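Structure Section — protein described below
Tokens — whole-number codes for backbone shape
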Amino acid sequence: MEEKILKEIKNLKSIIAQVIGSSELPVKQQFSKEAIANAAKEFQKLSIERGEWLVESDIHKVIRKASWRAGKFIIEKFGFTNYFTRGRTFYFNRKDLVALNTELKKRNIDLSRYIELEEDKEKFHKYIESLKDPKKNKKRQRFKIPDDLKDIVTYPYHHPPREVVEKHIETLKEEFEKFKMAEYVDIYGGNHAMFKFIYYWDKYVNPETKKRCQNWCSQFNYANEALKMIKQVKSEVIY
């Protein structure tokens, strides 16, 4: 019985060695780390050739309108784990991309627009931060401060009443309805607005309408950011 089991194990090892392409190597080298690593690379190569893995720039073949930078985004935002890299190229599992696309459709999420939304939010927040500390936007310069120059300071004023900011937001919402901006403006999460930019038609949008909508987006985002800060502040003064 024991001899039979050992014989079956030996046969199994022989079959595995043929599968990973190391059967022609000496027995001790057939299952070395190098042999297994080479087999894994060959398997990946065959999988890529069969279309089981897609390079990042081909994700749009599964997820419609996905941009060339979508790979890094789905890894960071959705925790996508079924991918590997070869050099600087990322490869993503087609089957899991299909599953992700199905889930995005269920939630009515346009991946391309979601990427634009996150980038717009980041850009807006950087702008707000630059207003808080203008020094961050200036290059370091050599300087000399006069010895008698001192005591030139200011202190933050009390933040506006929450009701004032909320009323401003309500007024903006009324303008949104009055000028029928829904055709040109998207609002996400009820607190961040983006102008709908369509390259092929943007040239033909009425300049006054475009200017009004872009200005409205700026005011709406500003007011909501102000309201957010008021909710976070613990004292009457924002430092």
Summary: Helices lie at 2-19, 33-49, 70-78, 94-106, 111-132, 162-178, 199-202, 207-232. The chain has a mean pLDDT of 79. DSSP finds eight helices and five strands in the chain. The longest strand covers residues 89-93.
